[in-house]
Amino acid sequence: MTTARETVLGRVRDALALAPAAATPIPRDYRTGRTLPDAERLALFTDRLVDYKAQVHPCTADRTAEVVAAVLRERGAGRIGVPAGLDPRWLAAYDGQVQRDSADIPAPGLDALDGVVTASAAGCAETGTIFLDGSPDQGRRALSLVPDLHVCVVDLSAVEVGVPEAVARLVPERPTTLISGPSATSDIELERVEGVHGPRTLAVVIRTDV
């Protein structure tokens, strides 16, 4: 008697035998090279982020620590987590407890944090998307998903107009997380619920002169 497993594997073998010897090239001639002046790119990125219900805080690079501390203070975040490689100068004005993350800290330990502060790899103004790639200043994926508040620092110089331009900034081999506003979903009656699969609050600090 032929088992279900043997039947499935047999069909896979038959399909592979009919497949062409060489894979058909996939065209990837996406539209690229689009640019906008800094002010217009910032305005577009901000508009998309706000539409997603994210908080946006543009600032100059020398005010990063001040703005990050103000956001954390406003949210009552007395204990935060940060990736091991985050620039310590960004926390110079913060007077709460800081927990440097490591793989040894389990998810329940991250859930006890009031928030997390990370950097970012790139951004897309057209879609209001922020890209994290697991670099030392961004940390592991769990760090940006478990705490209820995510304060993400984005350099305007790393924000591209469209998706193809933003993706071109990434290293394909790195684990990539795409963030478009706070975590949210809708039930069958289209009632929006936030914080189900990630942070309920996303605050984006955009450094405009980097």
Could you describe the 3D structure shown?
This protein is of the alpha/beta class. Helix content is 26%, strand content 23%. It has helices at 4-18, 38-51, 64-74, 107-111, 141-145, 163-167; strands spanning 55-59, 79-82, 97-100, 115-118, 122-124, 129-132, 149-155, 159-160, 177-179, 184-186, 192-194, 201-207. The protein is globular, with a radius of gyration of 21 Å. The model has no long low-confidence stretch (mean pLDDT 92).
- Given helix and strand content, the structural type is alpha/beta
Mean pLDDT across residues: 92
Oligomer: single chain
Biggest beta sheet attributes? 6 strands, parallel
Beta strands, count? 12
Task: Calculate the terminal CA-CA distance, rounded to whole Å.
Answer: 68 Å
- Return residue spans where pLDDT drops below 50 for at least 5 consecutive residues: none
Query: Strands across the major sheet, in which order?
Result: 1-12-7-4-2-3
H-E string? HHEHEEHEEEHEEHEEEE
Radius of gyration: 21 Å
- Estimate what percentage of residues fall within beta strands: 15-25%
In DSSP terms (H or I, runs of 4 or more residues), the helix count works out at: 6
> How much helical structure, as a percent, in the residues?
25-40%
> What is the overall shape?
globular
